[in-house]
Amino acid sequence: MAVLDSRTWMEHLGEEACWQLLASTPLGRIGVTVDSAPEVYPVNFRVDRGTVLFRTDPGTKLRGIDRSPSVCFEVDGMDEAARTGWSVLVKGRAQELLHPAEVRAAESEPLEPWGFGPKSHWIRIVPTEVTGRRLHTRAPQAG
Amino acid sequence: MTELTLVPSLQKLTPEECLALLATASVGRVAVALPDSPPLVVPVNYAIDDDVIVFRTDPGAKLFALREHPASFQVDSIDPFHRTGWSVLVQGFAYETSPADVDVDPWDSGPKSHWVRIFPGAITGRRIVLPRSDLDPRGYR
Q1: Phi-psi region of B80 (alpha: psi -120 to 50; beta: other; left: phi over 0)
Q2: pLDDT for B6-62, tens place per residue?
Q3: How far is B121 from chain A (nearest CA, A)?
Q4: pLDDT tens digit string along A14-60?
Q5: CB distance A31–B38 less than 8 Å?
Q6: pTM summary value
Q7: Which residues contact A104 (CB under 8 A, 6 or more apart)?
Q8: Which of A29, A115, B65, B96 is the most exposed place for a label (fewest CB within 10 A)?
Q9: Which residues pair with A30 in a beta bridge?
């Protein structure tokens, strides 16, 4: 059931609603810790059997994941005109797909990475916690 | 056959270009590194005051973590259809400060009485650009 904060009109979303929003979005942001500081990069991704799957090149992102696999993944949808929006945060562990069968399975469905480069590494985030919030606008006062 | 696929490329942005892009948006994501756990990433409404990111928040996990740990701020604008856009990352430290002169107008209606500034240590950004097509807008050479 939705819980709406009467002060901020912020709804805390259930896990099922969070996964529906994750599946409806092509673009998310991976948050990794690199040398004890957070870094956030946009990636396109897909939901795969309760995990988040994306591709990347060797670089800061992959190095960060190797050293500190505790990551988060954020998606949001903002409506600037209506001043509302929602966001979902997945916390979990990132692992590179190393087994050829896993890579083949991942490649069997299209996921075209944006940007330049072969993006030869597949990363899967296995969630430990999924939370989400949706901001509601107050209905205009009658009269 | 002529190759018509437009392969996008990544272009590094200068800090000046990044700051100019930051000034064009109003929603960004504040990220805090937490020891032994995943970083926290939360969208906030923000403003730029003298090259410093300013946002407002309520007391809670985010504010508590921001006082103790390195913070980053990320803003992007991406067109999923054309697969173009940009992303800027500001890394630095967050400080709770007195209310700023700039107007920060959070969408939610909590009091958000705490003002936070992120002082940039490093500003980096990338732009995804499609190469110039040798076709004109009608699709003719």
Answers
A1: alpha
A2: 566 778 999 999 999 999 999 999 999 888 889 999 999 999 998 899 998 887 777
A3: 11
A4: 999 999 999 999 899 999 999 889 999 999 899 999 999 999 887 77
A5: yes
A6: 0.86
A7: none
A8: B96
A9: A41, A73
